[in-house]
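Work Package 4 report. The design task specified in the project plan requires that, given a folded chain encoded as structure tokens, an amino acid be chosen for each position. We show below one input record used in the internal validation round.
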């Protein structure tokens, strides 16, 4: 089953679309094999009012620490890409959030994931919620994580 491009909140007031390139990056890192390690990166794209378009998902760098059930992102390589995209797009393409894989069919966040997402949301300079994506073997798990208040779950739009 292919991963879905279009997502939204239940009330459809906030829509999210992934480019084919971003979906392709997710698909290439799905943990199908027992010895596949977790992968991840950052999500870059544009903001349109409450809506977001994810243009690019960066791939793991040689500095990231990758294990079966843990992915620790080192900012260095991902941050350079984010700054390059920001400047060459004249500020249109910005940091939106993070993604990583889980060795589960239908993934759900760990308590470590939630703690990390919250910390990243607090750090955001534009005060927008963090876009948090987990790539499972059969589906994505997607949440908007604000720096205060409850997270908002997104579901696929077919
Ligand atoms: Zn996780």
């Amino acid at each position: 089953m292919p991963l879905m491009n279009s997502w939204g909140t239940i009330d459809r007031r906030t829509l999210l679309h992934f480019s084919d390139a971003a979906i392709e990056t997710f698909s290439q890192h799905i943990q199908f094999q027992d010895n596949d390690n977790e992968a991840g990166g950052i999500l870059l794209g544009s903001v349109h009012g409450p809506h977001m378009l994810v243009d690019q998902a960066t791939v793991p760098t040689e500095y990231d620490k990758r294990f079966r059930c843990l992915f620790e992102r080192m900012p260095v390589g991902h941050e350079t890409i984010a700054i390059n995209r920001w400047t060459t797009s004249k500020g249109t393409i910005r940091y939106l959030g993070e993604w990583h894989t889980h060795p589960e069919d239908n993934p759900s966040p760990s308590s470590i994931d939630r703690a990390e997402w919250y910390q990243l949301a607090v750090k955001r300079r534009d005060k927008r919620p963090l876009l948090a994506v987990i790539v499972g073997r059969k589906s994505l798990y997607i949440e908007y994580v604000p720096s205060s208040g409850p997270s908002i779950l997104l579901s696929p739009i077919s």
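The longest helix spans residues 75-88. Validation will be extended to a larger panel in the next phase.
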